[in-house]
Amino acid sequence: MGIVPVKEIHSLLKVVKSDAATAKKLIGVDDTWAFNIAYNAALQASLALMYAKGFRPKGEAKHVSVILFLREALDKKYQQYINRLDRMRKKRHLAVYGTSRTITQYEAVESIKFALNFSKELEEMVNGLLL
């Protein structure tokens, strides 16, 4: 299927579950990293969809490429999900590369819920493509 082996796509979906579990464990310990890992879970699910459709991000701005792909590949009903993922991307970038560590516990918990919900939607799409 496409240019990406199915095994690699399934591996990404396993990372989603692992990242979500890790993010949950970090709540109250390091909420910023819980948030960052939740973002990564949603990003991996997005990559799985991208790969299942036969695409790979290139260049330095891979996270942005994934967002742009989602905007083109998904129906308008997913725009709120994509917008939220993009906001998370920007916040994560500041937390990782800047000096901002202002993620609250509430925000971390909500990011995990979001990542799980969005990832579930994307995984269903991926599984439909891989049949």
Number of helices: 5
In helices, the fraction of residues equals over 70%
- CATH architecture label name: Up-down Bundle
Ranges where pLDDT stays below 50 over 5 or more residues in a row are: none
| Extended strand count | 0
Strand content: under 5%
State the fourth-level CATH superfamily: Nucleotidyltransferases  domain 2
Identify the overall geometry.
globular
Compute the CA-based radius of gyration.
Answer: 14 Å
* CATH fold topology: Four Helix Bundle (Hemerythrin (Met), subunit A)
Order of helices and strands: HHHHH
Task: Summarize the biggest pleated sheet.
Answer: none
Label the structural class.
Answer: mainly alpha
The CATH class: Mainly Alpha
Give a written overview of the molecule:
- With 131 residues, this protein is mainly α.
- It has a single domain (6-130), classed as Nucleotidyltransferases  domain 2 (Four Helix Bundle (Hemerythrin (Met), subunit A)), CATH 1.20.120.
- Helix content is 76%, strand content 0%.
- Helix 1 (6-26) runs antiparallel to helix 5, helix 2 crosses helix 3 (62-73) and helix 2 (31-52) packs across helix 4.
- The longest helix is centred in the C-terminal third of the chain and has 26 residues, at 105-130.
- The model has no long low-confidence stretch (mean pLDDT 94).
Summarize it.
The chain is mainly alpha-helical and 131 residues long. The chain has helices spanning 6-26, 31-52, 62-73, 79-97, 105-130.
Please specify the SSE layout and strand pairing.
Layout: H1 6-26, H2 31-52, H3 62-73, H4 79-97, H5 105-130
